[in-house]
């Protein structure tokens, strides 16, 4: 009988760290902790199935012994015995809801890293404090920054030598106003926004380059 290397790897990696000695019951001992790492580049490996080229790591922990593994979201979703709770502590069973909770955890992690950089800018750049606060409000409302505000903040962070990653800063391009802002940016500011755009956004606005 042909063996599935993905399942075999998963069983070999999780059973030694679990109380149960069979794969099905071992999976039931593990839960998603809510911790996520964005490595920015697809360079990591799933510690469960050993799939390579992962950008995002999600932490799962054994409820009996506190062993933990950093895995890909695909493994958590495929193995529905791995526990995921919502913010009220209710265990999620529906696949769509489980995926939504993982996506939410990732977004919160990315937003936290964005705010960490902007707090440093706020501390150093007294002249632009109100401007930073205004743009953070837009982030909280829309989960992304308008192009003009994003461009200026990126430029200011460069000026103050504040470390940040362009890929963490989402761009809001869903309204005519936001699109006009994008096209009205001067080339030196536009380049900051282009580096923040998703691959899909770059396809849709390819002519700006």
- For the record, give the distance between the C-alpha atoms at the N and C termini, rounded to a whole number: 54 Å
Radius of gyration: 21 Å
Largest sheet: 3 strands, antiparallel
Helix/strand structural class? mainly alpha
Number of strands: 3
Number of individual domains: 2
Ranges where pLDDT stays below 50 over 5 or more residues in a row are: none
Mean pLDDT: 94
Order of helices and strands: HHEEEHHHHHHH
Strand order in the largest sheet: 1-2-3
- Fraction in beta strands: 5-15%
Cα shape: elongated
Number of helices: 9
Polypeptide structure, described:
- The protein contains nine helices and three strands.
- It folds into two domains: 5-83, no CATH class; 107-208, no CATH class.
- It has a three-stranded antiparallel β-sheet.
- The longest helix is centred in the middle third of the chain and has 30 residues, at 95-124.
- It has 209 residues and is mostly helical.
- It has helices at residues 5-14, 23-27, 73-78, 95-124, 129-142, 147-159, 176-184, 187-196, 199-204, and strands spanning 30-38, 56-62, 68-71.
SSE layout and pairing:
Layout: H1 5-14, H2 23-27, E1 30-38, E2 56-62, E3 68-71, H3 73-78, H4 95-124, H5 129-142, H6 147-159, H7 176-184, H8 187-196, H9 199-204
Antiparallel strand pairs: 1-2, 2-3
Helix pairs in contact: 4-5, 6-8
